[in-house]
Amino acid sequence: MPAQAKADASAAPSRQPASSPLTERQEARRRRILHASAQLASRGGFDAVQMREVAESSQVALGTLYRYFPSKVHLLVATMQAQLEHLHGTLGRKPPTGDTAAERVAETLMRAFRALQREPHLADAMVRALTFADRSVSPEVDQVSRQTTAIVLDAMGLEHPTPEQVSAVRVIEHTWHSALITWLSGRASIAQVKIDIETVCRLIDLTAPEGQGTAPEGQK
């Protein structure tokens, strides 16, 4: 982890317990913080997200910011979860239209990829934060994973996936994340990313019990 990220983590006071539900005012403050983080990252990437600037932009005290997010890495991973949550809502309003679960998931993940492609500095900042994340950031990383899984399962049209399908989803998530990293580093084109995602999504149809894989009712 870079020295600045380590310094952020070591200097930060402990945040309020995760089990404590946020009040409406606290939730609004959290949303302002995440919005400020995304705005700064969009303009200048990982290095542009400085905790003092985030606090000033979101109009909260620096100590308050650290109670919500002990470090920049915590903040940016939470920012990614918020971005995925927003994407999930968008997908709900305009779901994928493929005939098979594999096609729908591939379409969904490419839509997510293109959304990140429009904000490359933000995408790079969030992915770097995920890469730097240590065990202290596990709750935030788990939230990102759960949100990604929910997006994929919704695209599949499943509420109760089999263990084999859950395993396939994990492999798909790993591939999507890896494809994002290779694209950000300039080692893969969008066309190659699309091929990789479509290829790995075939695991869904391979692991589907008989009768699954067609379009959900209402999309036919």
From TrEMBL:
InterPro entries xref list: Homeodomain-like_sf, HTH-type_TetR-like_transc_reg, HTH_TetR, KstR_C
Sequence segments annotated as region (Disordered): 1-28
Keyword DNA-binding carried by entry: yes
Pfam families per UniProt: TetR_C_20, TetR_N
Keywords, sorted A to Z: DNA-binding
Keyword Flavoprotein: no
Protein name in the entry: TetR family transcriptional regulator
HTH tetR-type domain residues: 27-87
Domain of life according to the entry: Bacteria
Gene Ontology terms for molecular function: DNA-binding transcription factor activity; transcription cis-regulatory region binding
Residue ranges of DNA binding: 50-69
The organism's taxonomic lineage, starting at the top: Bacteria, Bacillati, Actinomycetota, Actinomycetes, Kitasatosporales
Chain intervals with Low complexity compositional bias: 1-21
Positions of transmembrane segments: none
